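tool_call predict_complex ligand=NAP
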Amino acid sequence: MNAAGRKVAIVTGASRGIGAATAKLLAAHGYAVAINYHSNTQAAQAVLHDIEQAGGIGLLVQADVSQPAAVKPMFDAVEQALGTVSVLVNNAGILHTQSRLVDISVERFEAVFRTNVLSCFLCCQEAIMRMSTRYGGAGGVIVNVSSGASKSGSPNEYVDYAASKGAVDTLTRGLALEVAAEGIRVNAVRPGLIYTDIHAAGGEPGRVDRLKSKIPMQRGGQAHEVAEAIVWLATDKSSFVTGSFIDPAGGL
Ligand code: NAP
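tool_result ok
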């Protein structure tokens, strides 16, 4: 809780898509929200504008969360401006052009794992040092944004991305058990096909519409539908839930 009586949340990759929807929904629930982004300053500013227009509190924090040297300064800046962090949403994630595994370069594999897994590991470390009752903290909540790809494996599209999300699932479960008695809950969401920019990065902006007939609910999801699950996991409404997964995926 900060001086204004608001809990403080950091959402990584909050300039666009699921992260942006989550930052706005957390702000609407009264959280002071740090909007982390990598390079799209204009999109991040638009998220901050929306939060402030609605009477909320936000803070822009540019940082490449895949870089070890960037993560501690980001947490320090947020704490200085907003107060002690009690919610971390590890949402930043990337994928690259649809390919078979044999065509994926080592450089690409490493970049995907750095952004999708190392960032989650680094931000969790920082959060735990500040939240854990073991280190004098007052507790907190971590929500990781994994993917249904961790179960499907994404053959012929991006096995590297799917494997990185498998790592996020395992990290979520192991860390949740490690800190369960230290006042920290750790859970994850595994979205299915959601309408965001990420599919254009894979080379197919219309991917959700191509595949939607394979979704039991016969439609793609919206970012705000994932944000609802993330925010539920972030609040005390899920106070007895840890080490768990919610799959906002229309039945996939
Ligand atoms: P998106 O629309 O492409 O947005 C990605 C966000 O991550 C942007 O805000 C981007 O910042 C940020 N980002 C990327 N690399 C970063 C880095 N190194 N440091 C800080 N921020 C970084 O993606 P999305 O679809 O909302 O995806 C969000 C999460 O949901 C990802 O983890 C993704 O794997 C997961 N997911 C998405 C879907 C789906 O269908 N959309 C399904 C399952 C899981 P900039 O704007 O500055 O580039």
